[in-house]
């Protein structure tokens, strides 16, 4: 029997397990300590592990990430929280020019086991800079691993896998799904669960592959259920860098069609790279072009417009219909 947890609570439990397993694991970020984070994801860790391992920082993202790089060079495994996705950019220089390149720069002599937790995506009625989907920036940067979760089971295990990685990991948390609850097998072994870099078949089907990750996986599953005319296979990408192309292309070769859905903007988004790669590897299996369903190429709107901006059930189903129109 498992334990019923929300995604937020599952990440909390995974962080706790990692800190108990390795005394070199520590947390840093704005309000992660006494407050327990704005989404309460680190709630209780300060009380149980103390101020030396759960560290409240100043409002200085570049300082947070820069400090984490130095601590990783000294053998620690820092887990830093960027409070909201749009707050990341002051730390872009530290992340892209230092964190991502340090292991290669040192010819492998320096591990860089830094996990950067970032709540991302929209759907919570927030103000400007609180609802971004910046995953393509990280995915484009060689040296970073980029993962995202769509359910509590993955949240619990993948945060622990990320912390054990000797490469820096961008751990994207879909904030509008934080409070969705399912059963989590907390008694399994970390060596037995699905590897962090592997995609997952969330729903089997035969007519079309619907690819999603993070907050869009639930929408994709709803679309597959709503489409009673076709058998839709839903693939949860889980890892955006590296991408598990063997699982994706195997699915597309079976179904002959691919629709990719994500909250990030259309142009230069993760779906563009996936579409290009699948077209190269599955050209003679495709019955239609790869269809992308994404946010519009505009800045994130005011909260009262976000339900029109974010891809929803109808837009995903329209994408599926376009795939079958050929």
TrEMBL record:
<dbReference type="InterPro" id="IPR029061">
    <property type="entry name" value="THDP-binding"/>
</dbReference>
<feature type="domain" description="Transketolase-like pyrimidine-binding">
    <location>
        <begin position="5"/>
        <end position="180"/>
    </location>
</feature>
<dbReference type="Pfam" id="PF02779">
    <property type="entry name" value="Transket_pyr"/>
</dbReference>
<dbReference type="InterPro" id="IPR005475">
    <property type="entry name" value="Transketolase-like_Pyr-bd"/>
</dbReference>
<dbReference type="GO" id="GO:0004739">
    <property type="term" value="F:pyruvate dehydrogenase (acetyl-transferring) activity"/>
</dbReference>
<dbReference type="GO" id="GO:0000287">
    <property type="term" value="F:magnesium ion binding"/>
</dbReference>
<dbReference type="InterPro" id="IPR009014">
    <property type="entry name" value="Transketo_C/PFOR_II"/>
</dbReference>
<keyword id="KW-0786">Thiamine pyrophosphate</keyword>
<keyword id="KW-0560">Oxidoreductase</keyword>
<dbReference type="Pfam" id="PF02780">
    <property type="entry name" value="Transketolase_C"/>
</dbReference>
<keyword id="KW-0670">Pyruvate</keyword>
<dbReference type="InterPro" id="IPR033248">
    <property type="entry name" value="Transketolase_C"/>
</dbReference>
<protein>
    <submittedName>
        <fullName>Pyruvate dehydrogenase E1 component beta subunit</fullName>
        <ecNumber>1.2.4.1</ecNumber>
    </submittedName>
</protein>
